[in-house]
Amino acid sequence: MNTTLATRAAMTGSIALLAGMTMISTALAQDPDWTGNPSYGSQHLSAGFTPDPWTLHLQAGGSNSVSSHLGPGCTGYIMASSPDLDLYYTAGSLPLYIGVESQVDTTLVISAPDGRWYCNDDFIGLNPLVLFQNPASGLYNIWVGVHGSNQLQSATLKITELNPMR
User: Fold this and answer.
1) What is the mean pLDDT of the chain?
2) Per the domain annotation, does 89 fall within a domain?
3) pLDDT in tens, 138-158
4) DSSP assignment of the chain, as one string?
5) I want to staple 143 with a disulfide (CB 3.0 to 4.6 A). Which of 48, 50, 63, 78 is the partner?
6) Cα 39 from Cα 79, distance rounded (Å)
7) Are residues 22 and 35 in the same domain?
8) How far apart are CA 161 and CA 3, in angstroms?
9) pLDDT for residue 71
10) Is 91 within 8 Å of 99 (Cβ atoms)?
11) Which of 138, 162, 57, 72 is CA-nearest to residue 108?
12) Chain segment 94-126, per-residue pLDDT in tens
């Protein structure tokens, strides 16, 4: 009987430890809050906008690890409490490319008008790019993250309708 109580106590302690570890890892990964005030403001662009590309210099990254349950390619560290930029886009017939250029490994997390999350890491070297082949008109909440580090890093967000691979 004492052996059974000791075994149950050990199992209960193990379960409590596992639950505590799960809560710690969950606290580190926070879903991005698309309703927060964007750190770098809002931008309204309509199909055929000029100059193309539209660019924004910013500090990428933050203290929150991106949760991979948002979708494939979702990784890095962002400031989850608010997007970096709210893009209000009026679509036309051209695709929409949202990318980042930086000297460090950056990532992108985007909440699109269709209610889905789109992420990318390392599309062109260490720079991310998300392509919307047939973009919807509406609000795109954009976070620029840093892969593997919670240190802020200089980056340039680029929004274009022209193929950045040319």
Assistant:
1) 85
2) yes
3) 999 999 999 999 999 999 999
4) -HHHHHHHHHHHHHHHHHHHHHHHHHHHB----TTSPPTT-EEEEETT-SSSSEEEEEEE--SEEPPGGG-TT--SEE-TTS-SEEEEEE--SS-EEEEEE-SS-EEEEEE-TTS-EEEEE-SBTTB-EEEESSPPSEEEEEEEEETT--S-EEEEEEEESS-TT-
5) 78
6) 9
7) no
8) 69
9) 83
10) no
11) 72
12) 999 999 999 999 999 999 999 999 999 999 999
Residues 6+ apart with CB under 8 A from 152: 59, 60, 61, 62, 146
Count structural domains, the chain.
2
Q: In this predicted structure, which of 2-6, 15-19, 58-62 has the lowest mean pLDDT?
A: 15-19
| pLDDT for residue 97 | 98
Residue 166 included in any domain: no
d(Cα 56, Cα 88) in Å, to the nearest integer?
15
111 lies in the same domain as 132: yes
Q: How far is residue 165's CA from residue 56's CA, in Å, rounded to a whole number?
A: 19
Q: Does 2 share its domain with 67?
A: no
Domain extent at residue 4: 1-29
